[in-house]
Write a structure and sequence with these properties.
Helices cover 23% and strands 25% of the residues. The chain has 171 residues and is of the alpha+beta class. The strands form 2 sheets. The protein has a 4-stranded antiparallel beta sheet. Strands 2-1-7 form a 3-stranded antiparallel beta sheet.
Length: 171
């Protein structure tokens, strides 16, 4: 994985197989192995610096408002926690997204109410793709074929934008 998480601190406790099983049972899905692997080393929360996910492919006109510059900022990632009231928990994040009307087969790991990044289990229960979805009209866009490729495409924000917010990234 591309993230260097050495020294990162998580407010969530270290996970155990029992916690993973309980979270998966609560969510009704099998979490991707790449996500579990990351969470066993760093169990989610806020990043020390923000990242940008590079958007590949043509963004539909109705989502250009959100994704039009070719990147989406990521400041945190929900971890695996047995406490469903924890802000840094995938259970909390997914349940909050569902309260905003996001389909049950979509498990959010980041979001703010209006926009979410999520595992999309609607087409595959084994290896969900990663999507961006908004909660006004529930329009979505495929961000990555799986979590591993999602993490590999994260770029530190200071390599994408300068201090004035100008795009400096060159592929």
């Amino acid at each position: 994985m591309a993230l260097n998480i050495d020294g990162w601190v998580s407010e969530n406790k270290k996970i155990t197989n029992m916690v993973i099983d309980n979270v998966e049972r609560t969510l009704g899905v099998k979490l991707p192995s790449a996500y579990i692997q990351l969470m066993t080393r760093w169990n989610g929360g806020g990043f020390p610096e923000s990242y940008q996910i590079l958007i590949e492919g043509d963004v539909p006109e109705n989502l250009k408002y959100y994704l039009g510059d070719g990147f989406w900022e990521l400041n945190q990632l929900a971890g695996i926690s047995g406490k469903d009231d924890s802000y840094n928990s995938i259970i909390y994040t997914a349940q909050t997204a569902h309260e905003w009307g996001i389909p049950r087969e979509v498990i959010a790991f980041d979001g703010d109410g209006h926009t979410w990044l999520a595992f999309d289990y609607r087409d595959s229960i084994h290896e969900p793709k990663i999507i961006f979805i908004e909660s006004d009209e529930f329009k979505s866009f495929d961000i990555s074929r799986n979590f591993r490729s999602f993490i590999e495409r994260l770029i530190p924000s200071n390599q994408v934008y300068d201090h004035d917010g100008n795009l400096i990234y060159r592929a």
